[in-house]
Amino acid sequence: MSFFGSIIKGLIDIKDKVTPESHPVEEQQETLQHLLETAKDTAFGKHYDFESILASENIEKAFAEKVPYFEYHQMNREWWYRYHEGERDVTWPGIPSYYALSSGTTGKKSKRIPVTDEMVDSIKKAGITQVGALANFDMPVDFFEKEIMMLGSSTDLTEKDGHLEGEISGISASNIPFWFKGYYKPGEDIAKIDDWDERVQRIAENAKNWDIGALSGIPSWMELMMKKVIEYHNVDTIHDVWPNLQVYTSGGVAFDAYEKSFNALLAHPITIIDTYLASEGFIACQQRPETTAMKLITGNGIYFEFVPFKAEYINEDGSIDNNAPVITLDEVEPEKDYILLISTVSGLWRYLIGDTIKFTDVERAEIKITGRTKFFLNVVGSQLSVNKMNDAVNALEEKYDIEIPEFTLAAVRIDGEFHHHWYLGTNSVNAPDETTLAEALDSALKDANKNYGVARSKALKGVKVTKVNTEVFHEWSNHNKKKGGQVKMERVMNEEKFAKWEDFVKQLVKS
Description:
Layout: H1 3-18, H2 24-39, H3 43-47, H4 50-55, H5 59-66, H6 72-84, E1 98-101, E2 112-115, H7 117-132, E3 147-151, E4 158-160, E5 163-166, H8 168-173, E6 184-185, H9 188-191, H10 196-206, E7 212-217, H11 219-233, E8 247-251, H12 259-263, E9 271-278, E10 281-285, E11 294-296, E12 302-308, E13 337-344, E14 351-361, E15 366-372, H13 386-400, E16 406-414, E17 417-425, H14 434-448, H15 450-456, E18 460-468, H16 471-479, H17 495-510
Parallel strand pairs: 1-5, 3-6, 3-7, 7-8, 8-9, 17-18
Antiparallel strand pairs: 1-2, 4-5, 9-10, 10-11, 11-15, 12-13, 13-14, 14-15, 16-17
Helix pairs in contact: 10-11, 13-14, 14-15
């Protein structure tokens, strides 16, 4: 038995026992108070009169009444541009030390989201919370001596106008605590390599030199990395290279869509722990083995609000109507979808992060990601959210014993009438023909969503499926210079984007 591993496990167990019980609603009230008091003398705080909000009897209500919703482009156009002109104290005291470049999944180019030193500290604190939760998973002592493969974006950040820029995973990895560096792989030199393929090649070459016990990263890119390592060493599973691999910390997207294809790369099951690290902050992490839901991190510099996820509140561009109602944590209900708004120590205020969530346990503040507002397909009243799409694709996987880790779709006009055209990414040789898949997909969606069933009886005239190799989706990301890191494939496209996608697929097949 490892002496050092025993010490680490003992410290985690002790921390778990002495950490006071969480009171999410109270923590949220205190967080909002702290945010408003800290930012009251900024340009934003003066404009929206934070002083009077703080003096009101109900701070949460006054805050919601005085400050409007903001999506990225509006926030950048009205406020953050002033940082780039050299101004200080715009939406948060001082100037941001970093800017997180988002993956640009749904936009034409990456967003530049301020990341303050306070947010870096918040992310570190959340990471420690996540590590502390391992006490609940009954991991063996020797696990705490193994190395951790963190597969994110490059840590070679770009210096610009007095700050550093990069994806949030790269910013986080460049700020890991000194005591963690001995466990961290692929190590600083390889992590700085900007080219995704080169970085993964170096990981494959060095893989057998490391004793990896845990993986952390977005599922699609983690799968690609594992496949490369397996191929390079000419073995059957990742456990043939890393026999002590026991944990995978997923993040960025719901893991359900990737579960079958991910498990196919393993020799035996491992512990899957979900996390929710976005470009805007570390939002939630799984803390109990008996659920896959994640607990909102409610006392760590992020204040949450929730808009009921209904079609009438969502604009065509994925933003929300200014008249949409908002509720606080003490008002949410279980199993209902909500659009997430956040206010943070980086100077984001009532900010539309773009994700939808549902509460599985209100008292514990445990949630699951259910989709994205811009991936809500409602062109002809079908009201399809990403979780309904994932459920339907998972049903196909189970019914035909195949793997479909990637998909995208759009509402398109065929002979003047609307159809849903799905592209399913699968390398399974036993996958049925496209007509059979389309019929099964259509049936699964009708069973799961009554609005979809109504749409199919009226304006939505049919479903079309095109099968492509999973690698096509990865090449699309590469084509758009968005390979690796925090990049997530867009599940829903508009007609213009979908036409470009179809042209890309045709050219790829020809070549």
